[in-house]
Amino acid sequence: MEEKNLSLNEWHKKQAVESFNATWDLIDKKDRRTEENIKMVHTAHASRYHWEVIGTPLELARGEWQISRVYSLLNMAESALFHAQHSLKLCIDNNIGDFDLAFAYEAITRAYFIGSNLDLMKKNYELALGASKEISKPENKEYFLSELNTIPL
């Protein structure tokens, strides 16, 4: 089958989505090899870059969250916190609430846990719980809480 010619924006969107999904596949993979960890970092950043070209603040916030999760998985607390804080800033500056705001606080909580800053971890855990009360869809709230509860208190 012949692939149609894509506009530049369509191409960026395709790259953003494919990179985002490839990152998720690597996040979910058990026993990643070192090469796969490196690829996971690159695909997360690639997705975020392509969303920067054509996306909205919502996609940018989600991209920052995904990058933060990748760095948390790799025990890179400073990088995880940097991207988590940027995700939160995008949410606040653009009035993005619900699921995404709660996950921004979750990412900050996770980064502080990785960095062994338990006081700030607990503070942001409470902020994440508070934000979860504004998640409108019950299945999204349930999923969020299941993810938040993977962070040991």
Summarize the helices and strands and which ones pair or pack.
Elements: H1 8-28, H2 34-54, H3 57-73, H4 77-93, H5 98-114, H6 118-132, H7 138-148
Question: What does this protein structure show overall?
Answer:
By secondary structure, the protein is mainly alpha-helical. The chain has two domains: 1-55; 77-152, no CATH class. It is built from seven helices and no strands. The termini are far apart. The model has no long low-confidence stretch (mean pLDDT 96).
SSE ordering: HHHHHHH
Mean pLDDT across residues: 96
Task: Compute the number of structural domains.
Answer: 2
The helix content is over 70%
Q: What is the CA-based Rg, rounded?
A: 16 Å
Structural class: mainly alpha
First-to-last CA distance? 52 Å
Low-confidence blocks of residues = none
Count of β-strands: 0
Shape descriptor: globular
> Percent of residues in beta strands?
under 5%
- Helix count from the secondary structure assignment: 7
Main beta sheet strand tally, sense and closure: none
